[in-house]
Amino acid sequence: MARAPLLQLTDISLTFGGDPVFDGLSLTIQPGDRVALVGRNGSGKSTLMKVMAGLVEPDRGEVVVSAGVSTGYMEQDPDLSGFATLGDFAASGLPEAESYRVAMAAEGLKFDPARPVDTASGGERRRAALAQLLAQAPELMLLDEPTNHLDIEAIGWLEDHLSQTRAAYVIISHDRAFLRRLTRATLWIDRGEVRRQEKGFEGFEDWREAVWSAEDDARHKLDRKIKAEARWAVEGISARRKRNQGRVRALAALRAERSAQIRRQGTAAMALDSGPQSGKKVIEAKGIAKAFGDRVILRPFDLRVNRGDRVAFVGPNGAGKTTLIKMLTGEIAPDQGTVTLGTNLEPAVFDQTRSALNPDQTLWESLTGDPDMRVSGRADQVMVRGQPRHVVAYLKDFLFDDAQARAPVRSLSGGEKARLLLARLMARPSNLLVLDEPTNDLDVETLDLLQDLLGDYDGTVLLVSHDRDFIDRVADTTVAMEGDGRAIVYAGGWSDYRAQRGEDAPATLDSAPKKPEAAPEKTRAAKPGLTFTERHRLDALPAVIERLEAEIARLTEFLAQPDLFTAAPAKFQKATEALAERQQALSEAEEEWLTLEEKAAP
Questions:
Q1: Of 231, 232, 411, 528, which one has the greatest count of Cβ atoms within 10 A?
Q2: CA geometry: angle at 189 spanning 188 and 193, to 5°?
């Protein structure tokens, strides 16, 4: 017997008072669906997800959630007012017996549930909102950019969790590797139309190109038909006294059809100028180290960066990636060791905090107010790689329209702010690019273009990113910050780094690296022991096991009621499923405890 769909949208139209965002949209989410929701920045992905979640009311149409189906939506900017700690917020609405779910999610997503809300960063708040959703375990999860503000280790944990859940989910994400692993269907928003393909994100780009190619062929045929009919209409004036009015009307209809076709948004017209050539040696670091108080950021470390190198820095949030880059570029001094910079360097920096952007300035002011871009005596032009350009024309290269030029920076989305920062960075010649989390919020097409630009760039690139696919496409060297101040250099990108460590599962970056060379004879083989996270987990597992055992006992007692199945079959079914879930969780927790206990043994 077929199960009812979880969610149905029928004939949805939404305008926000202007051009339609969607018109006549219908779609269905079925039990077990694992869907990637993709489209250009500004295409309406987040709006559609809010319609699914019931947070945005359409102008027309119907949104139906099947009876008894629970849905959960991860907010981009969660409201934590009224809660003392992140844990209080994440556990709100959960039975006390299931609060352990929050603790498990907090560990995987790497935030402290005891952190006061007033002192929590935006990233910590988003992680708490994600933990709340995962702990509630609804039948349908709506996840809008869940990997933003997660490091690679936490992304791996989230991938594992979602790959094992029985819930359906719809995911918006720019992280190709994340989408490829988790999705089995794709919803594509393109110029107000939503298409669905029963293949995961792996097949999206081929599908997109096939659709666009078919569109181009159809448009070309229509253009040829219009041209032929127009020629007939002109020639018919002299050839015949009376023209065939039906064909004239048909020509007008063809022209109207061509005019009504919505042009695809092009990619940003980004360009990089590598400027004057730097010396062959760009950076030489010898024995550099850094600590803040008792916290060791970097133990003595050597690195040589030559002209044209692409070096990626990976590791958990807080491991010291940005600090290391600032030492390598001379922005901050190491506690010991030396950094020698090469000759003729012209750096350009993309700052993950977007600190170069003033939220109260307009986009126009953000460009013309930069002394490095200002054209003397001209308030409407900026200097772009040595040539004057009109402000609006340059902004259009980065997909901003005329109206946005006078809008405040604070009105921009995350992806638009990233594009504006790239516009500032790419206006000036450089031969050393420092890119600290440049991929956050950028759509797939813009990421593709940025990757191509970096491939053709003659200068040197230092890159911090949690986007594994982007690292693989760009980097030829990876520096892994592996915890406790250790930084290890590996050849190649993310996949090469993983292969050299001998890892198939998601990497735990704070564990000891696996070295291919044999250990010295005087070094005795020994068990590596537990990492900090594993020690914390081993301490927490007995309480988790105890809670699960108590819940299993209560559920078993509840199901033992002789008339439960006939009197309340829905409750019986739900309790049976809950019992099976907790028995599985108990088995996994006991197995994990045994594995960690064995690893901890001397």
A1: 232
A2: 115
